[in-house]
Amino acid sequence: MNNKKKKRAQVPFRLNMLFFVVFVLFSMLILRLGIVQIVYGEDFKREIERTEDVTVNNPVPRGKMYDRNSKTIVDNVPNDAITFTRSQSTKPEEMLKVAEKLAGMIEMDTKKVRDRDKKDYWILRHPKEAKKKITKKEWTLYNQKKLNDKKIYDLQLDRITPEELNLPKEELEILAIFREFNSGYALAPQIVKKHVTPEELARVNENLEDLPGVDTTTDWERHYAFDKTLKSVLGKVSGSDEGLPKERIDYYLSRDYSRNDRVGKSYLELQYEDVLHGQKAKVKNKTDKAGNVLDTEIVSEGARGEDLMLSIDMDLQLAVEKIIEEELMRAKQNGSTGLLDRAFVVLMDPHTGEVLTMAGKRLERDEETGRTVMQDFALGNITTSYNVGSTVKGATILTGFKAGAIAPGTSFYDTPILIKGTPPKKSWKQGLGTLNDVNALKVSSNVYMFRTAINIGKGNYVPNQSLVVSDDAFEIFRNSFAQFGLGVRTGIDLPNEMVGFKGNDKSPGRTGFLMDFSIGQFDTYTPMQLAQYASTIANGGSRIQPRLVKEIREPVLDSNEVGPVLKRFEPVVLNQVDTTPEWMGRVHDGFRKVMQEPGGTAYGSFGSAPYHPAGKTGTAEAVYDGPLRKQFNGPKLTMNLSLIGYAPHDNPEVAMSVMVPWAYDSDTGHHANNDIGRRVLDTYFELKKKRQEEKMNLVQPEQKVEEKEEGEELLQEISG
């Protein structure tokens, strides 16, 4: 009995202890909740309501490009577009649902969809089937952390069959849209489709509430008014699906660009990216802790990029290109060579360096049609170089003066140079007689230049004996030529300008090579270098930096007018040639005789020109290194033609270079360099005259009205 009473007494005691423990625990919980709510409540509330401001830069249209006469060369064409902006918390499944809805409203191009895109899409669409692609053993290894998520996903990708990737057109369109959704960055609008039709735009606008993240906007594309003119020089812009170039992504990101911004990729578009890209619109997105956008605030509207006014005269450019095409085809039809495929012309203001024309054409085979077509190759004026021949002889004469190798009036008898163990080195024509420096330029004597080079190299020439020149002879020549722009970068405002190639002056036969150098048949030069050299001679010895951009203009919104000048580029003198007025005058006289006196090498082409030109022709024997070189077992010799000039000779306003590489490879030649040069200068002065007459015609009617009114007033006074 007593044992039973003791047991009954212990049960209530245990229950009471249990209740007491529970009571204490609940009390502690309530106390803790009270502390959290009363003491830290405001802090936690602020944490829950905490938002984040994320600023996004939206791109704006790029600046335009005009020619020197305000003719539009590069513009922006607006297009309706559909964009998608995903928040930081948007899930792939949510984007897929939106893509399904949008696919029912627009036609979507599926060409960009790759097999990898299809595989990712299939896994997202079929998660259960994808899971079954992994064996039990592999899942065990995964649970044991011997396989990671990436390895499991790669196994799933590898085991998707071709049949499973055979998607119908409707599914491919959904995938194409989803692909664009997924390629964008959080809170940055991503273009899903450009060139949206009015019907598609209306359907999407009507259903924007059911398409979270989707919006319509006005996109822009670069438009080149002259599709086959200067295209290679103007450059390219990256597409909206390409964004920042990978090789320069860090550079642009450090300058506040977004990853999907379109930027200049080459040449003028790249060179003036900082000017053309404009001030991007800034939008501040206020997001909650989960990344959902709560509010959007426009920080700045942004502004279109500033405009470039080029130095190019587009009317002249087009006319020169037509001349090149016609003369190139005429030379080809003569059948003198199958290698001739290109020609170049540069026109420049010799006093400012402004490039008026930068023309180049190249014949290429169209891979689709198999036909030969004429392509723009203006870029070749700075990216290709050639042996130019006798056009450099003006620089050779001035180098001889400076080195003390010859003096104004020094004469040599034009007879072949005979060096022991080598073939005779002679002029292009025999019987030129005794020549001074001026007449040597007029008739293009090689021998005169050879004798000058030998003297520069301090050689002791004795016919039929060995001849050695000093070690510094090439250095003297190259340093002097560089003062004219030959063999160095001209400084033109374009990237990737080449210098040209230097011949190996350390090899055996260097004495002969020095003589070859003096007549432009050793080192190679670009057509732009030739133009800078011609300008330096024309203006009396100032090497001017060539420029394609004349001014930066303020953009004018909603107008085709050119805005006010923001910056004007003044002429930049890179160096003064180490010469005297007397020395330069001798070269000027020689160049004048080349084109204006009977016997001059270009007199037949330019003797009747009313604008009194001066210049120098060039023919160089060169080794062909063009696109057909693999067809030949060894070196293939060919002839390059060149021409430099300026006009009028006594007060030059335009300087010119013409380059026709690989012009012919037989005894039957042609003079495409002179034919092109004459037509080009004729065109320049005819266009100038035409514009002056048009300007006069605009002024004259106003003058006639004023004269009529004055006459009527006089009659009234007389009759009164």
Automatic annotation (TrEMBL):
UniProt keywords, alphabetically: Cell membrane, Cell shape, Cell wall biogenesis/degradation, Membrane, Peptidoglycan synthesis, Transmembrane, Transmembrane helix
Penicillin-binding protein transpeptidase domain ranges (all copies): 344-681
Protein name per Swiss-Prot or TrEMBL: serine-type D-Ala-D-Ala carboxypeptidase
Coiled-coil residue spans: none
Biased composition (Acidic residues): 708-720
Catalytic activity: Preferential cleavage: (Ac)2-L-Lys-D-Ala-|-D-Ala. Also transpeptidation of peptidyl-alanyl moieties that are N-acyl substituents of D-alanine
One Gene Ontology term from the biological process aspect of the record: peptidoglycan biosynthetic process
EC number, UniProt record: 3.4.16.4
Gene Ontology molecular function, alphabetical: penicillin binding; peptidoglycan L,D-transpeptidase activity; serine-type D-Ala-D-Ala carboxypeptidase activity
